[in-house]
Amino acid sequence: MKKTAMLIQTALFIALSSAAYSQSLADLADKEKERRQEVTNDKVITDEEVAKYRSEPLTNPSDRPEAKPDSGQKAAEPHETSKSEKTESDEPVDFQGRPESYWRQTMADARQKAKDLENQANVIVLKIADLQNQFYREDDGFKREGIQREIQKSFYEQDKNKEELAKARDALQDLEKEARKTGALPGWIMEK
């Protein structure tokens, strides 16, 4: 009985701790509303700025900045500036051009998935233990049958969870191997 109570407390702790990290939709909406109120967009965009960031060629040649008679300097092509802005980055990349942030985020997501599945496995074990205790305490045969069905469902969930956890761990190892092969630095794939 004492062991069951401890298992139930552990399950509740896991459930409450995961709930503590998640935010409700209302909280997120309030934060977004506050963020939008803080952001002010008082900047006026001029024709020069538009021409600098334009990605498509202008349809009318007289609209080009270098075609205007008052501009003494020849302006750079819009395509050239946008290409140089895209390629210039302070973030290091691997051999395939994927940045450090890609590897850090991908590895964090894979680790989080495995951790969630481990937590889910712990909850299932506690659920099975609780259902087994209910089964042995119950005198009514019909209620015991219902509890037995729930136990069987929990065992099925446990088997399914074990398969998913094994796949998640394999995927994590495969990601680590891929990162090493593509030249990602070890610090990018390590857990903080």
Description:
The protein is mainly alpha-helical and 192 residues long. The protein has a domain at 2-17 and 103-189. The protein is built from 7 helices and no strands. The protein has helices at 2-21, 25-38, 47-53, 78-87, 100-137, 141-181, 186-189.
Output the number of helix runs.
7
**Helical content class:** 55-70%
Radius of gyration, CA atoms, in whole angstroms: 29 Å
The H-and-E topology, N to C, reads as: HHHHHHH
Helix/strand/pairing category: mainly alpha
Mean pLDDT: 78
Shape: elongated
Distance between the termini: 39 Å
Set down the secondary structure blueprint:
Elements: H1 2-21, H2 25-38, H3 47-53, H4 78-87, H5 100-137, H6 141-181, H7 186-189
Question: What is this entry, summarized?
Answer:
This protein has 192 residues and is mainly alpha-helical.
Characteristic terms for this protein:
mainly alpha; 70% helix
